[in-house]
Design a protein that fits this description.
Its main location: membrane. This protein is mainly α. It has two domains: 199 residues, no CATH class; 69 residues, no CATH class. Helix content is 66%, strand content 2%. The longest helix is centred in the first third of the chain and has 30 residues. The termini are far apart.
Length: 364
């Protein structure tokens, strides 16, 4: 009996080896869905796809920079995260609607990790290492075909977590919104609220004007378009592009305010309001994230929250759009794509990326 089983095993191994030259190309072909849909791509779709791309870009530029600030990183890292992972995802993803990049939840968790590892690693190193490891773990889950586990995770948990994260982000950004200085927005929300109220007399009124007016303007534009622009694409574009439009208007006004402003010894303008100043142009040179064994053992337990949020947010949003548009996504393939996107992005200054509901919704 044992000899027969051994012969059967040997035959199976032999057949696998013989079939290897055919199975490897087939496996690669299946792992890159772009090889299936690109030959069938209709050139007439290009205009609509270009409009969708421009639409998302109008949102992701100000949004990416804002999320980067939430994560405790320089603003350019939000831009790196917004498009490097997305470029790679288009080769391996199975969702035709999903846009990946930085999100509010991931930014908030990254900020906590940056704060916890302060002094041991720079924020950029924390972002790169967490992005690499989360990507590697996600890729491994997809490779081992463990995506079925996600079917048993309750959506209510993710909804509750996302809602809590949104409230936390709103409170943490409150001091900057109204120009209050000297408040540590990494403190617990109730402490941030207390310290903000306590330091209100020291608020920079010009910062408050910019922040509050921009905030109100964004809300009013959205409400106005929802009321009077339903079904009209040209008017809907006003709502979609309002983030970018308000950012451009604020930048122009800020520039006009600082014409003729004095400069310091370094030649930098002495700003009357809080401004970003210099944002590096172009991509950073590829950098291998500084992963050591000590760092690995220290940071891995803290990555569970980011890993869960990255995977669950991505799959939940992907499935929602798939149901809406009557197609299916492959969970394991999505994990492979998301993992590969994060691993790649980690070498270019990005932090963890996942599916974004807001940016995906505007292009559908």
């Amino acid at each position: 009996m044992a000899d027969q089983q051994l012969r059967q095993f040997g035959s199976a191994v032999k057949e696998s080896i013989i079939d290897l030259p055919r199975s490897v190309p087939r496996y690669i072909y299946n792992r890159f869905p772009i090889l299936k849909w690109l030959p069938r791509y209709n050139p007439s779709w290009a205009i609509r796809d270009a409009i969708a791309g421009i639409t998302v870009a109008l949102i992701v530029v100000p949004q990416g920079m804002s999320y980067s600030k939430v994560a405790g990183l320089p603003v350019q890292h939000g831009l790196y995260s917004a498009y490097i992972g997305a470029i790679f995802y288009c080769f391996m993803g199975t969702s035709k609607d999903l846009t990946i990049g930085p999100t509010a939840v991931i930014s908030l968790i990254t900020a906590a990790l940056v704060n916890e590892l302060q002094g041991k690693l720079t924020p950029q190193e924390v972002a790169a290492v967490s992005c690499l490891l989360v990507g590697a773990f996600t890729f491994a889950l997809g490779f081992l075909r463990l995506g079925i586990i996600l079917d048993f995770f309750p959506n209510t948990v993710l909804t509750g977590y996302t809602t809590g994260a949104a409230a936390t982000i709103l409170i943490s950004q409150l001091p900057k919104l109204i120009g209050v200085q000297g408040v540590n927005n990494r403190d617990p929300p109730y402490t941030v609220i207390y310290n903000t109220c306590k330091n209100l007399p020291n608020a920079k009124w010009l910062d408050a004007v910019f922040g509050v007016v921009a905030f109100v303007l964004l809300i009013l534009i959205g409400l106005a378009v929802d009321r009077w622009g339903r079904g009209k694409f040209s008017i809907q574009m006003i709502k979609i592009s309002r983030f970018c439009t308000v950012a451009i208007l604020a930048t122009i006004i800020s520039y006009l305010i600082h014409i003729g402003a004095p400069v310091d010894a370094k030649g930098e303008v002495i700003a009357k309001i809080s401004i970003l100043k210099n944002v590096p142009k172009g991509l950073p040179p590829p950098m291998v994230p500084p992963v050591t064994w000590d760092l690995f053992t220290h940071i891995v337990p803290k990555l569970v929250a980011i890993l869960l949020a990255t995977i669950l947010e991505h799959i939940a949003i992907g499935k929602a759009f798939a149901r809406r548009n009557r197609y299916k996504i492959e969970t394991d393939q999505e994990l492979l794509a998301l993992g590969a996107a994060n691993v790649t992005a980690s070498f270019f200054g990005a932090y963890c990326v996942t599916g974004s509901f807001s940016r995906s919704a505007v292009k559908v």
